[in-house]
Amino acid sequence: MKTAITELFGIEHPIIQGGMHYVGFAELAAAVSNAGGLGIITGLTQKTPELLAKEIARCQDMTGRPFGVNLTFLPAFTAPPYPEYIRAIVESGVRIVETAGRNPEAYMAALKAAGVKVIHKCTSVRHALKAEQIGCDAVSVDGFECGGHPGEDDIPNMILLPRAADELRIPFVASGGMADARSLVAALALGAEGMNMGTRFIATKEAPVHDNVKQALVAASERDTRLIMRALRNTERVLNNRKVERLMEIEREKGDSLRIDDIMEQVAGVYPRVMIEGDVNAGAWSCGMTAGLIHDVPSCKDLIERIVSGAERIIRQRLTGLLEGRAA
Ligand SMILES: Cc1cc2nc3c(=O)[nH]c(=O)nc-3n(C[C@H](O)[C@H](O)[C@H](O)COP(=O)(O)O)c2cc1C
């Protein structure tokens, strides 16, 4: 399947693995890229630019195919040294960057001067248009269903994607709620040039996270995520657990006066404990509604092949069959 996204990134299938904190290590990015998709290393999981350069080198040892690096621009008090992270990326020879969080305008000149293709992940049409205006090559349109930060507009992809298609000139992929062949066909029908998956890629053989995390996703249903931190305007979709229930109790008690300090115990330092140690109840960690569509832990190759061949079947048999009056 050839789309504007496969052409832009030089990949075989229009499937991207979104950057994920403590999940997007070299093993996963290489496995996705080797399977013909676009794997992405999560830049800030590496605590320094030097460590990121090492992680990129590890990934280059595992794949000769294109992969990218995610740079998330956080509303942090002490900003990470982004220019140095960008230098590490560029000097390592990586030519694809997924930006997310705040608008990457301040770093576009450095990225473009080095010939980097930028795909910005955002949750609204207005932010996607801004990304187009500042020179991003593509956007990843992240709907309300997504794991992680869906923004504050709460627009699901059934509306957000055709709205993006109506307004954008640069290509975009559908992100959030994407999990299988049906997602890919639907994304293409709604005007996207491919799809970006987060949660689904955690439950794969190569994702270098504790098996408890993968099993928690297999066990969870589409009703098991919760939205937290709305009062902070930093809404996050997470998998429910006891700590998340406690956090939501605190949110109800504090109302609009909630401060990040009130929920530190439930959100700080959680990722290594969940992803590495396997304590899935350690606190709040991002998870999408696609948990309800995850029933197994395949290899990335099997997952991507299943999606691509399933999409072809849906298009050729079910959809074409409907046009030709055949029961599908
Ligand atoms: C555990 C987890 C961690 C994530 N960490 C990041 C991150 O550090 N930076 C980022 O831009 N997106 C992050 N995301 C969002 C994903 O890249 C992707 O946009 C999202 O998962 C898509 O929705 P889906 O989970 O329904 O596929 C994370 C998602 C998950 C599930």
UniProtKB/TrEMBL annotation:
Q: Which UniProt keywords apply?
A: Dioxygenase, Flavoprotein, FMN, Oxidoreductase
Q: What is its EC number?
A: 1.13.12.16
Tell me which domain of life the UniProt entry assigns to the organism this sequence originates from.
Answer: Bacteria
Q: Which SUPFAM superfamilies match?
A: Inosine monophosphate dehydrogenase (IMPDH)
Enzyme class name: oxidoreductase
GO MF terms, alphabetically ordered = dioxygenase activity; nitronate monooxygenase activity
Which InterPro entries does the UniProt record give? Aldolase_TIM (IPR013785), NMO (IPR004136)
Asked if the keyword Oxidoreductase belongs to this entry, the reply reads yes
**Name used for this protein in its record:** 2-nitropropane dioxygenase
Which species? Nitrobacter winogradskyi (strain ATCC 25391 / DSM 10237 / CIP 104748 / NCIMB 11846 / Nb-255)
Q: What is the lineage of its organism?
A: Bacteria, Pseudomonadati, Pseudomonadota, Alphaproteobacteria, Hyphomicrobiales
